[in-house]
Amino acid sequence: MKIFENIINHKLSNITADELLKYGEQFNIRITKAQAQKIADHLRGKQVNIFDDRERTKIIKEIARIAGPETAREVNRLFLQFTK
Question: InterPro entries, alphabetically (predicted)?
Fold first, then answer.
């Protein structure tokens, strides 16, 4: 299971705006191209563990500051889909 978590966390640290948009569409989550770009820029290169509730909460708060609270809620829904 740990390898699965590592793969997902690594993917998030290298995600592109286009990939975020694709995942948003796949999981029925509303996100604009500009928001996806800001979020991808923020996540790029960060070592994030979305399987840890505290870390996920921290990154969601950062996303809320960058792209707004509604977008952060949507991204959190996406992260929760990844962790299931």
Answer: DUF2624
Half-sphere exposure of 44 (CA within 13 A, CB side): 11
Identify whether the C-beta of residue 83 lies closer than 8 Å to the C-beta of residue 33: no
Whether the CB-CB separation of 51 and 84 falls below 8 Å is answered with no
Three-state SS for the chain is CHHHHHHHHHHHHCCCHHHHHHHHHHCCCCCCHHHHHHHHHHHCCCCCCCCCHHHHHHHHHHHHHHHCHHHHHHHHHHHHHHHC
Q: What is the mean pLDDT of each run of 10 residues along the chain (84 residues)?
A: 88 93 86 90 89 93 90 87 81
